[in-house]
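User: Can you predict the 3D structure for this chain?
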Amino acid sequence: MNIEVEAISNEIIKPSYPTPKNLERYKLSLLDQSSPKFYNPLVFYYTKKNTTTIINPAIILKRSLSAILTHYYPLAEDSKSMDNSSIATTRVFPSWKLNDDAHQIIFAVQLNTFECGGIAVGMSLSDKIADALSWMKFVKTWALMARGGTTMLPKSLRPEFVSSTLFPPRPQSMIEAETCVMKKGIITKIFVFNGFAIEALRAMYWDKENNVRPSRVETLSTFIISRFEAALSAATEVAKPKKERVYTILHTVNLHPRMNPPLAENSFGNFLVFTGTHIPASSINGEASITSGIVKKIREAVKKVNKEYLDKLQKGEEDEQLNMIEQSSKNIEKSGGEVIEFQVTSLSRFHFYEINFGWGKPDWNSLGAWNFDKIIAFFDTNDGDGIEAYVSLKEEDMAKFEADKQLRKFVTSNYYSRNNINSNL
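Assistant: Here is the predicted structure, written as structure tokens:
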């Protein structure tokens, strides 16, 4: 089904009050510098029953956005980066399309209205200045201001910008700026696992020897990647001789609770790192994934993000673990082997379905489509019991993956009467 979209207006929103002179330069942290130029698309959908209001939703969003930018000054249009170039232009209601200059825009919002009376609030959030948890705190606070009609925040809700203090930046010449390039032929599909399916899989991967019950993220990461390998093996076994294949599994790790003391909930910035592990394909395929201890290996990799690791990170030292994995990958490829890298992130328990701008909670949320290969993101279902797994793969790989019988056994079909997304903000 094609939907005709007509752009009505394109506007830059400025804060209610000018940014103080002493805050006009925002200092990027080491983790900001190391973050790729990548955008997270997010859309909140509200049906007509929730959007009936005397005030135009556009007015509500613009007023409240202008008010909250006073507190979140790095997002304000008049803030500057450490190299004096503009880094923060906040737009609302644009016809949003990523391009070579898009990294200069930190945050964009698009309001969509439908003939049925429903609306969708779409956002594009830059990873260059903050992680998903920080962005969600911003959106929740913005929604609070919108439905309350307030212009000022109590001190307990005001953001703290401590990232560059905790992780001092390095000279820009020493940082390799990375841009995530979207690829053609990538499709993103949503695979929904209800609570019963998740618990069944957790029981399957239970470490009975050490009596360790895997987390939902550990379980679904292992299951999805094992089914991908099973589908890939079945398709390539006859087509060509097998060659050594190794998986690199990268998980994002939230540093908020790992800092000493733990970071305040309203800390805004990049506070996450990647941790990874190498696993031979022979340990992943089908039943082998249950007995090979993949869950344990993933957990051990995450545990390495400890006090010693954080101390080195704060001193600006390189990540030895990821360097070793990268070097090992190069060696495997030099010897004629194949390395398959999956990136896994979890947005579970972020309470996206609590975002209320004044016309009720959203009926459905969407992470949009990334167009990056082998990305897995976990997102709560609206009942809070299950998990939506957003999986991005090449079209030919997706066809093999979604046809896997073992995968289909645990996935809830037609959970929302839709299972794929192809929209980009």
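Residues 216-236 form the longest helix (21 residues). The CA atoms of residues 301 and 419 lie 32 Å apart.
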